[in-house]
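Q: Please design a sequence for this.
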């Protein structure tokens, strides 16, 4: 029995889903109450893009382990891919009820609540996420965003102010502090946060430039190391010719392309080409106007 199970696992890893499924189904006939075997059958069907069969076997599994949050979240994700939002919500809620610290489940429930404009519920999920991951600023920004979306501007201002206290260089936080201060008529604080925002944006730009330069330098260092191993440093080594080689002419002769008859002719060519090499204009950074198009939810939603 153990050999059949291990052979099924090996077949899965090799991508031989049909062979693995046959082996696990054979085991299921021998051990019909084995939770591990039923899990493997359901998982192979899910991996093999057979959602209906996967749902069938996961439901069989729930008869043995009805409170398993892993099985429930798997069912929720399958229904989500099948675009059955009601069933997806049901199983995610069940998974959260039995295991309220799964970040994937919490993030999905929070996102679903925001999309359906249920900001009070979303706030609950994001506050829970912030308790589990207290050093992740994203969840605190989500809480503040929910207050702002629901029109609770003073609560949103207090939340953003606390985030700024903990993360003084966070650009998104400063950006919303500027606009909420404007909405609440806090003119003195608007000016204060605008100055801080410009400073933070400049620091981020400089950090990005420094990171780009470091990446380029690292790439060049790797290139030179490879060149050294191949007997060169940056450029191929010079190999002197075995016999003297005639030196090429530095200027074209009469009848050849680029031939200049006189100094006057050369002056005409230089004058004609001078206009194409004028200085380029400098770009002017546009001032920030109005409110931002999105918010921190739009920027972090893909990560959830």
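A: Design:
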């Amino acid at each position: 029995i153990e050999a059949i199970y291990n052979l099924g696992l090996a077949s899965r890893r090799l991508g031989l889903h049909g062979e693995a499924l046959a082996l696990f189904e054979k085991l299921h006939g021998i051990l019909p109450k084995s939770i591990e075997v039923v899990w493997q059958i359901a998982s192979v069907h899910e991996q093999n893009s057979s959602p209906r069969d996967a749902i069938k076997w996961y439901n069989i599994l729930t008869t043995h382990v009805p409170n398993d949050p892993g099985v429930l979240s798997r069912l929720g994700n399958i229904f989500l891919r099948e675009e059955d939002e009601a069933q997806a919500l049901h199983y995610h809620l069940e998974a959260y009820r039995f295991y309220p610290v799964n970040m994937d489940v919490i993030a999905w429930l929070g996102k679903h609540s925001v999309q359906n404009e249920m900001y009070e519920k979303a706030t609950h999920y994001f506050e829970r996420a912030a308790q589990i991951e207290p050093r992740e600023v994203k969840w605190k920004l989500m809480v503040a965003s929910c207050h702002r979306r629901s029109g609770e501007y003073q609560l949103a201002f207090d939340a953003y102010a606390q985030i700024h206290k903990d993360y003084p260089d966070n650009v998104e936080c400063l950006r919303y502090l500027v606009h909420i201060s404007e909405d609440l008529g806090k003119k003195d604080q608007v000016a204060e946060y605008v100055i801080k925002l410009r400073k933070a944006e400049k620091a981020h730009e400089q950090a990005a430039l420094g990171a780009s330069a470091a990446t380029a330098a690292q790439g060049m260092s790797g290139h030179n190391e490879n060149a050294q191993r191949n007997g060169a440093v940056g450029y191929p080594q010079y190999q002197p010719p075995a016999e003297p080689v005639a030196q090429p002419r530095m200027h074209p002769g009469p009848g050849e392309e680029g031939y200049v008859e006189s100094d006057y002719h050369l002056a005409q060519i230089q004058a004609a080409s001078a206009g194409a090499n004028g200085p380029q204009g400098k770009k002017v950074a546009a001032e920030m106007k109005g409110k931002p198009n999105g918010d921190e939810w739009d920027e972090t939603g893909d990560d959830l």
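Q: Thanks. Anything notable?
A: DSSP finds 14 helices and no strands in the chain. The radius of gyration is 33 Å.
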